[in-house]
Amino acid sequence: MITLEQCQQWDAADTLASLKNQFELPQGVIYLDGNSLGAKPRQAVERAQAVINQQWGTDLINSWNKAGWWDLPVRLGNKIGRLIGAQENETVVTDTTSLNLFKVLAAAVHIQQNNDNTRKIIIAERDSFPTDIYMIEGFMALINQGYQLHLIDSPADLTTSINQHTAVVVLSHVNYRTGYLHDMAATNELVHAHDALLIWDLCHSIGAVPIDLNSSNSDFAIGCTYKYLNGGPGAPAMLWVHERYQTAFSQPLSGWWGHAQPFDMAVNYTPADNIRRYLCGTQPIVSMSLIESGVDIFLQTDMHALRRKSLQLTDLLIALTEQECTGFDLTLITPREHAHRGSHISLCHPHGYAVVQALIARGVIGDYREPEVIRLGITPLYLSYVDIWLAVQHLKQVLHNQEWAQPQFHTRGQVT
Ligand SMILES: *Cc1c(COP(=O)(O)O)cnc(C)c1O
User: Any idea which positions bind pyridoxal 5'-phosphate (predicted)?
Assistant: First the structure.
């Protein structure tokens, strides 16, 4: 039996607890949606003011040099690189995850064409975040060279589907719906044993679980900065390419920011001989600047300490829902095994959408994903053990009182 007092003791002993002070969250809110939009670091306001008032307002165009705007994608990429086992100058911050997938997919397909042009299959997961599938479809239609998309239904299906026809595999390191976590090193090994290339989508794992792209021998990775990294709404995404592929192909969105000598204003495109070749055009500097406030908080701790707390909190959430909410038709779809669990917990309920709305009305902000999935994100930077206790007490009340049956919880907003 887990008690509130026990949770209070865990909080008192939590060495990461003080990091919460670096975020500004509204009073009375338990925020379980940092996996979709991270909370606001306090420092972000000061940084936004500096960028808008000083860099833009006062220094004007000088800021491209003086404030390092031109170097920002690589400088920030290197900071994020420290969280994902990247070497210097292997990571950039730019564009969106969707666009970055297009770029690295083009690179991977092109590299494979040079190796063995008979490989025409791209493997992805049916349960991947849909934009990944949409972008692959769009890319295949554009190049129109007989590529086919093969969708697998479970991680185990990869073993039986991959073969000598596979060119590229695209996987989400952590599944956005179930929270399933792939074994990165073992999956790279499997894919490489078939001479295929693998693109990791890190959207739900960057800042959530320890990642070591180099020691796991990964090829390509892309991911969001506005989820666990707390970069701010719509903040540009990251892109990482293993050193061995950085100059093997220049991606097709060959804008001037990826040019070797952009200020030569040359007539023709020559890609930079480094990771900058994955840039395209002028970046949203204000938004990009804010990412640093979130990343700097991570750099005060380490991903292994965060992972320990994340697993304790997700274990606690599972245990408490089983202790407090039995008989209410909740089904856990997140793996119990630590080795395959990301940092969110998903519970199915026949009225999942309305349950989430009723929780939000009580100040417990999670989100809903089709079909029937209540998704509760666990961000150890700003959640306590007591927060988890309280969230489960609210869930229990919503279910016990059937609050979800109230009509106002059944209307859908534009974004769910
Ligand atoms: C959130 C998310 C995205 C979002 O892509 P955008 O281009 O930023 O809209 C892509 N892939 C996965 C797996 C995600 O979770």
Answer: 97-98, 129-132, 201, 204, 226, 256, 282
CATH no., domain 70-298: 3.40.640.10
User: What is the reported pLDDT for 202?
Assistant: 98
* Active-site pick, 227, 277, 309, 341: 227
State the distance from the centre of ligand 1 to the C-alpha of 96, rounded, in angstroms. Answer: 8
Query: What local confidence, expressed as pLDDT, does residue 413 receive?
Result: 87
Residue 326, CA distances (Å) to 36, 318, 329, 397 in order: 27, 11, 8, 12
Model pLDDT, residue 250: 87
DSSP 53: I
Residue to substitute in 37, 94, 98 for testing ligand 1 pocket (most ligand atoms within 8 angstroms of CB): 98
Helix (H), strand (E) at residue 199: strand 197-201
Q: Which atom of ligand 1 is nearest to the CA of 99?
A: 7
Q: What is the pLDDT of residues 179-227, one digit of tens each?
A: 999 999 999 999 999 999 999 999 999 999 999 999 999 999 999 999 9
Catalytic residue check, 278? no
Judge: domain 4-42+302-410, CATH 3.40.30.10: no
Tell me the C-alpha distance between 387 and 313, whole Å. Answer: 10
Quote the radius of gyration of the chain (alpha carbons, Å).
Answer: 22
Helix (H) or strand (E) holding 369: strand 367-369
How far lies 104's CA from each of 183, 322, 413, in Å? 21, 42, 34
Copy the structure tokens of residue 80: 């994020």
Q: Is the C-beta atom of 98 inside 6 A of ligand 1? A: yes
For 352-392, the pLDDT digits (tens) are: 999 999 999 999 999 999 999 999 999 999 999 999 999 99
Is 227 designated active site?
Answer: yes
Atom 2, ligand 1: which residue's CA is nearest? 203
Give the percent of the chain with pLDDT over 70: 100
Domain ranges of the chain: 4-42+302-410, 70-298
For residue 198, give every residue at least 6 positions away whose Cβ sits within 8 Å of its Cβ, in sequence order, or none: 168, 169, 170, 171, 187, 188, 191, 192, 218, 219, 220
From the candidates 95, 127, 201, 367, give the one annotated as an active-site residue: 201
Instruction: Give the pLDDT score at 415.
Output: 87
Closest atom of ligand 1 to 201 CA is: 13
Q: How far apart are CA 235 and CA 295, in angstroms?
A: 12
